[in-house]
């Protein structure tokens, strides 16, 4: 994969308009290549592509979604992503949201897009008690609208900009507050069974998204709804992970690798592993990998 991308970069003379004005520094070129390579690796690892599908690429206006949009279009530009891309921004009616920024940006950069207005902000403010966080209801309303839009547009997948750090933070939130080992999977089939939810940035560090969007000078729009709330569980977990990372650089990547190296036989969940079959004197399980040992599917 590395040789193929390097060869294409050497011969590709034109670029997608999303990369107009990109820095010419060696540091940025390495960052850009790393983002493309890691996104492609996630797409291949989780078998995200069905040639000819249409993807609804969700664009919030944050650094992560800009990175997602640019990298997917570069992959498609290089002929490495045989799907149709449609960018979508859901304007949720937050006061002060700069409604013209994304339409103007997407039009200027020649990106096919749909802008949808739905005032979920008023619903969230009305339904969520004072002092409680908005994230759960806001996310549920947003996801419902995105499912609807995807179906209206004939899309087979909703593509989100969650990165490696989001996945880790969700894992620890479930661990600390939910009492379960779970996180956001890179690929998920919705309950109705008609749409995939994809996270192609699953292998990418948040810091790289920050560096990329800043270097490209994309018009980042902050979230003033949940971003304005203090004491969010996710912010607390992020701070904890930052402290671990500062003391032991590379800790986040090690923890993420652990999520990809699960051993059901070494966890105390009887729904995932057939502990009743472990009988002294039986040699059937000796030297077998965890994937070879009988597993009970989750109910």
TrEMBL record:
It catalyses: cytidine(32) in tRNA + S-sulfanyl-L-cysteinyl-[cysteine desulfurase] + AH2 + ATP = 2-thiocytidine(32) in tRNA + L-cysteinyl-[cysteine desulfurase] + A + AMP + diphosphate + H(+). The keyword ATP-binding applies. The keyword Iron applies. A motif (PP-loop motif) lies at residues 60-65. Its cofactor is Mg(2+); [4Fe-4S] cluster. InterPro entries: Rossmann-like_a/b/a_fold, TilS/TtcA_N, tRNA_Cyd_32_2_STrfase, tRNA_thiolation_TtcA_Ctu1. Binds 1 [4Fe-4S] cluster per subunit. The cluster is chelated by three Cys residues, the fourth Fe has a free coordination site that may bind a sulfur atom transferred from the persulfide of IscS. Its EC number is 2.8.1.-. [4Fe-4S] cluster binds at residues 135, 138, 226. Pathway: tRNA modification. GO terms for molecular function: transferase activity. It is an enzyme of class 2 (transferase). Gene3D superfamilies: HUPs (3.40.50.620). Keywords: 4Fe-4S, ATP-binding, Cytoplasm, Iron, Iron-sulfur, Magnesium, Metal-binding, Nucleotide-binding, RNA-binding, Transferase, tRNA processing, tRNA-binding. It is found in: Cytoplasm. Residues 55-214 form the tRNA(Ile)-lysidine/2-thiocytidine synthase N-terminal domain. HAMAP family: TtcA. The thiolation reaction likely consists of two steps: a first activation step by ATP to form an adenylated intermediate of the target base of tRNA, and a second nucleophilic substitution step of the sulfur (S) atom supplied by the hydrosulfide attached to the Fe-S cluster. Belongs to the TtcA family. Homodimer. Catalyzes the ATP-dependent 2-thiolation of cytidine in position 32 of tRNA, to form 2-thiocytidine (s(2)C32). The sulfur atoms are provided by the cysteine/cysteine desulfurase (IscS) system. This is tRNA-cytidine(32) 2-sulfurtransferase. It comes from Paracoccus broussonetiae subsp. drimophilus.
